[in-house]
């Protein structure tokens, strides 16, 4: 992680970035000094601090020697988008892959595994913060611990519910008072919810 900047260092770095966006190249030392109404020596000290902290570097083979050190983008993964999940009344799950969803690698838990994405349809999991239209990131697994949110297959219908194992049956519980629990002895766990992706467009 890079060191924090002082107020002046932030101002100078911001000016360099804006100048480059406007002109297509970075400003010279004199242009920076003129913008801040200081002498070149003062700017030289600020730029040296920015170099030491890793925000800019010196490129001796270029006519304008300053170069902004770009941040590496966070690693991402491409997950298959598989149909929809009915968060409420079970909906027939599409078996084909509709596309791909790009998500930050940090959205996935450590430990590996295979993951896929399902789009939530319905309101039964609103109490758990899962809304209609959300993208549910699921880790493929055929087991669950009590209280975990899973994708469960009932005959040919998939639904997103909280899993509980009772003495002689399975209880699939919603997080909305309008949706009663589903009790069954025949259910297949397709995976466990690990993350939710939401857009606001």
> Helix tally?
3
- What is the strand content? 35-45%
Reported for the largest beta sheet, the result is: 10 strands, mixed
Number of domains: 2
What top-tier CATH class of the largest domain fits best?
Mainly Beta
* Unreliable spans: 86-94
CATH architecture call of the largest domain: Ribbon
Q: What is the first-to-last residue Cα distance?
A: 32 Å
Order of helices and strands: HHHEEEEEEEEEEEE
Shape category: rod-shaped
At the fourth level of CATH, the homologous superfamily of the largest domain is Umud Fragment, subunit A
- What fraction, in percent, of the residue positions are helical? 10-25%
Secondary-structure-derived class: alpha+beta
Q: Give the overall average pLDDT.
A: 85
How many runs of DSSP E, i.e. beta strands?
12
CATH topology of the largest domain: Umud Fragment, subunit A
Fold and architecture overview:
GO terms for molecular function: DNA binding; serine-type endopeptidase activity. Its EC number is 3.4.21.88. It is an enzyme of class 3 (hydrolase). Keywords: Autocatalytic cleavage, DNA damage, DNA repair, DNA replication, DNA-binding, Hydrolase, Repressor, SOS response, Transcription, Transcription regulation. This is LexA repressor. This protein has 201 residues and is α+β, with helices and mostly antiparallel strands. The protein has two domains: 62 residues, Winged helix-like DNA-binding domain superfamily/Winged helix DNA-binding domain (Arc Repressor Mutant, subunit A, Orthogonal Bundle), CATH 1.10.10.10; 122 residues, Umud Fragment, subunit A (Ribbon). Helix content is 19%, strand content 36%. It is built from three helices and twelve strands. Strands 3, 4, 5, 6, 7, 8, 9, 10, 11 and 12 form a ten-stranded mixed sheet that branches. Strands 1-2 form a two-stranded antiparallel ribbon. Strand 9 and strand 10 form a beta hairpin. About 4% of the residues have low confidence.
């Amino acid at each position: 992680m890079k060191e924090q900047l002082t107020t002046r260092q932030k101002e100078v770095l911001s000016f360099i970035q804006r100048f480059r966006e406007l002109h297509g190249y970075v400003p010279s030392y004199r242009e920076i000094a003129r913008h801040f109404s200081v002498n070149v020596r003062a700017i030289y000290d600020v730029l040296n601090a920015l170099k030491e902290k890793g925000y800019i570097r010196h490129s001796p083979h270029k006519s304008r020697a300053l170069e902004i050190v770009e941040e590496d983008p966070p690693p991402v993964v491409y997950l298959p988008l598989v149909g929809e999940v009915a968060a409420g009344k079970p909906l027939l799950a599409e078996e084909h892959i509709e596309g791909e969803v790009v998500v930050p690698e940090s959205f996935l838990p450590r430990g590996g595994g295979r993951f896929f994405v399902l789009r939530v349809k319905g309101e039964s999991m609103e109490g758990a913060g899962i809304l209609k239209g959300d993208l549910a990131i699921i880790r493929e697994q055929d087991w669950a611990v009590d209280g975990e949110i899973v994708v469960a297959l009932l005959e040919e219908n998939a639904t997103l519910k909280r899993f509980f194992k009772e003495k002689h049956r399975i209880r699939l519980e919603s997080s909305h008072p309008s949706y009663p629990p589903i009790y069954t002895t025949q259910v297949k766990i397709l995976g466990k919810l690990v993350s939710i992706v939401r857009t606001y467009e």
